[in-house]
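RECORD TYPE: inverse folding
INPUT: structure tokens
STRUCTURE:
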């Protein structure tokens, strides 16, 4: 999980168990060492430190999931285009967590239910063209896009013709997650709250011309 950071003016926030262990709390005096995706560092707001290379970038907890999904989507498209894709298609799906009948000990065992196609979203995308000779897209900025680096190597080194990448939203940052409830109960602020725990999946398929 990505690192959570919050800043305090006089003293760290505590809960009934003492000092919070979910969040790294720092004094406001060190805020200049961080960049914020929008605005300035605000005390008591919980930020997620984005897993990207370079200077630490903070995103308010409640905005992180949607922001992260968009950033990873754009990075995957950048890589596919630089590799010379002749066709790119992205479709959006949703998966909801359902309780199943099996029981182990006390309480229901939860599992992912069926994945269903979402009607239309800002992420739906398609492209068709002649393609181009593959170029190295350079370092991948996001370190948590499974398979993207392998796809890059497949096209550059082995002449790969077809790539499929799945990017998932991060349910621990949902507005109704257990973590969000713990943070709010301790008096911390999550920022603009986003979606609930329905998981969003972006499936990107790319075709490459024969070299």
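DESIGNED SEQUENCE:
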């Amino acid at each position: 999980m990505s690192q959570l950071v919050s800043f305090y003016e006089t003293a760290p926030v505590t809960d009934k168990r003492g000092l919070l262990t979910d969040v790294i709390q720092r004094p406001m005096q060190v805020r200049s060492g961080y960049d914020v995706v929008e605005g300035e560092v605000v005390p008591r707001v919980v930020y997620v430190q984005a897993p990207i290379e370079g200077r630490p970038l903070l995103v308010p907890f409640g905005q992180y999931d949607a922001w992260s999904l968009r950033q990873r989507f754009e990075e995957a498209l950048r890589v596919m285009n630089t590799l010379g894709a002749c066709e790119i298609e992205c479709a959006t799906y949703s998966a909801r967590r359902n309780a199943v009948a099996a029981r182990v000990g006390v309480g229901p065992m939860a599992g992912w239910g069926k994945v269903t196609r979402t009607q239309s979203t800002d992420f739906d995308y398609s492209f068709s063209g002649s393609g181009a000779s593959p170029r190295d897209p350079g370092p991948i900025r996001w370190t948590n896009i499974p398979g993207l680096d392998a796809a890059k190597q497949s096209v550059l080194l082995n002449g790969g013709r077809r790539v499929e990448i799945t990017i998932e939203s991060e349910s621990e940052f949902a507005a109704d997650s257990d973590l969000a409830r713990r943070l709010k109960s301790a008096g911390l602020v999550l920022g603009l709250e986003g979606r609930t725990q329905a998981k969003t999946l972006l499936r990107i398929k790319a075709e490459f011309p024969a070299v």
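NOTES: The chain is about 20% helix and 35% strand.
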